[in-house]
Fold this sequence. Notes:
Elements (H helix, E strand, L loop, with lengths): L4 E3 L13 E3 L1 H13 L15 H4 L6 H18 L3 E10 L12 E10 L5 E9 L3
Antiparallel strand pairs: 1-2, 3-4, 4-5
Amino acid sequence: MVLYRDIDISFEPDSSGDISLVEDERSVSQAIKSLILTSLYERPFQPSIGSTLNHLLFSPLDSISERVLCETIRSTITQFEPRATLKFVDIYRGKGPNGEPMDDNAVTLNIGYLVHNRPSLVTTTIILRRLR
């Protein structure tokens, strides 16, 4: 049984030529990624939806910045995504989650949450890369 359904933001057509849909865990994962990457005042008529993540990417990344980044992500998800119960936010810099070397200008976020009415933990990975 499908509980949640959204339009796939890649706008790829499905086999019938219609815009494809994402369901349940993929729907919530897509919404969380969209929320985190949306800046405040970016959505018309909904200026408070989003996060200050883009401002944090241009500050030096030390332990204090990591803590602020983690709390920003945590508050954004708990405030704006009612379909998920956040369990953890892990931040990786220098080395990835599996110990692989990463670019100095990149941060990997692992976000773990439970989708309501689903028993398993879902993990979403987002790579933030500063271009300048």
